[in-house]
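Feature request, filed as a ticket because there's no other form

It would be nice if the structure record came with a short human-readable summary line next to the tokens. Right now we just get the raw output. Example of a typical job, pasted below so the devs can see what we mean:
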Amino acid sequence: MIIKAEQFLKSRIKEYYEKNFISVPNIEKREFGYGIYNKKILDRNIAFKNDYELNTFLRERVPFYLSYSVAYYELPDAKPTSAKKLLKNDFIFEYDADDIPTPCKKTHDSWICPKCKEEGKGHTQKCPKCNSRTEISEWICDKCLDATKKQTKRLYNILTYELGFSEQEIKITFSGHKGFHTKIISPKIENIKQNERIELMDYITEEGLNFKELGFVPDEKGSIKFLGEKLGKSQKYLNFIKTVLESNDATELLKYFDPNTSTQTLNKLVNNKKEALESLEKGKFYRPRKESVDLWYNLLENLKESQKLYVDRQTTIDMYKIIRVPNTIHGGAMLLSKEVKIDKISDFNPFEEASIYKDGTLKIHLKKVPRLLLNREIFGPYENEIVELPNNIATYFLAKGVADEAIL
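Raw output as currently delivered:
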């Protein structure tokens, strides 16, 4: 028996919601939105009085997507937004794997020119043959998701060690497809305005960070002296530098310094590592050579780039954003939005821990799929063929729109 993708997926979603009860804290103060097959938001400005109303909706309407507001309102279903009467907000950060420039994108993503049909791998925006705008096919693999995990952990460290939020105030949730949401639920931040959100984002992403303003300034002799307080980002970058100085040879150091830095200068740093570390403790930077005044500034800028956060800026700034409801299905991947503890995130495997259909196999008709690492296994490439796959991978391809039917 052949079943079209939309019909098959909807039956699976219905089965999940009939067996599971979804609960949302402060549900009566949230705005909700839902989506259908191939459309994430069909309607919003919806409200539910309690969890029972919500679950009745899920079982009767069987949405492919369900989102709720990071804001709390007095009248969550009112229109326009200004009539909702904002009470407070959670603070949300979002990482999507397709926003992070991982090397694997050059192998599994591709482009095609709709005009001349030229095609290739990667993210070429304009056709090299006719200069027309290309259409890009993006994919997510395990390596992409691992990159979002590292970014999420880096953000968590900033929120806790630099900004002082507690573990209890931070909730991390797998989005159900491409990455993670990090939410701060705290009275310390629930009433800040949009301009304050922008300032906080600038701090976290180090937008416009000036190392001289942090206290890394040249003294009257031209050497570089640290004058900043031993807290926050000043201390953070001092610790980075100490870690770099622990490198054993010039080749290793060259990964961090400007590539034009001479081997002689780097060797002198290695040979005088103890003196360089002692200078840091005294609040000064060791200068291996007279001409190396900018040596440390180059290092700081390189360290800043290595710590770059690819967080979705607009999601954080938008006070009226709606995001995936935890424990609901993301219809574009058939995976659950699921809370993850920070100490478990490195080992989190969405195809095992967020899949609603893991057991057994399913035959599907695939159009075109590149070679992908999913669930720590290699799948593909496939093109216009019937393939029998594990249930979680097969439903994922159906949801992605690259398989048009299931064969039972």
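Something like this underneath would help us a lot:
Residues 152 and 180 are 7 Å apart (CA to CA).
The longest helix spans residues 142-162.
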